[in-house]
Write a structure and sequence with these properties.
This protein is α+β, with helices and mostly antiparallel strands. The protein is built from five helices and eleven strands, in the order βααββαββββαββββα. Strands 1-2-11-4-9 form a five-stranded antiparallel β-sheet. The chain is globular, with a radius of gyration of 17 Å.
């Protein structure tokens, strides 16, 4: 997995800055303005890569100095995501339960097992297969996970996280303070010819505990 704090001006940055992504997230979240929290490239090769345990993104981000769960992620499929290669699985509506306690298991933050079982007793797990180019918008409190890729096909995804402007971290953290997101027209991705200049993206070089 590769993570970075600022969108930059390459093609991935254009994807994070287009109205179709950024403005849509603001509408879904009911926020007047959101900024780029981070982006990440999730790379699960065939028959390799671990699983992401059941968690809420805010279960991580809460420790990163943000006070409100007014945050969300757009997950864009680069490859076809299927049940065989470990597509995302969610508990629909679980974001309404608020932030659930998490515990550290093997270096990952996971929802408290007892609470997770109670949620599963009330909410049916939904698998989210995606075709390349499909996207899913998720709330930071949505409980979700992704199994290991045990198939013969690669599964890569691009995730773009946004945060409300009031959520600038209150403590010293690697996460960026509020930085205005300069939006671009939806055709900026198609027009972009920058595939190699990653200036200003601020790549994350440490462990991923706060993500």
């Amino acid at each position: 997995m590769v993570l970075w704090n600022h969108p930059g001006n390459d093609v991935t940055g254009m994807m994070a800055r287009v109205h179709k992504m950024a403005t849509s997230m603001e509408i879904f979240m009911g926020c007047k303005e959101m900024y780029h929290w981070h982006s990440k490239l999730i790379m699960k090769h065939a028959r390799s890569g671990g699983s992401h345990v059941w968690h809420q993104d805010y279960g991580y981000w809460y420790t990163g100095g943000v006070l409100y769960p007014d945050m969300g992620t757009v997950l864009v499929a680069i490859d076809k995501c299927t049940t065989e290669n470990g597509c995302l699985e969610v508990l629909p509506g679980s974001h309404k339960c608020g932030r659930v306690d998490h515990i550290n298991v093997g270096g990952q933050m996971t929802v408290d097992p007892k609470r997770l079982q109670l949620l599963k007793d009330h909410i049916k797990t939904y698998q989210v297969p995606l075709n390349p180019g499909d996207a899913i918008f998720t709330h930071a409190n949505l409980v979700h996970w992704a199994p290991q890729n045990n198939s013969d096909t690669r599964r890569w995804c691009y995730g773009i996280a946004y945060s409300d402007v009031q959520n600038s971290p209150y403590n010293d953290t690697f996460h960026p303070v509020y930085t205005p997101l300069i939006k671009v027209d939806d055709d900026a991705v198609r027009k972009c010819e920058n595939f190699t200049d990653f200036t200003g993206k601020d790549f994350y070089k440490r462990d991923y505990d706060s993500f």
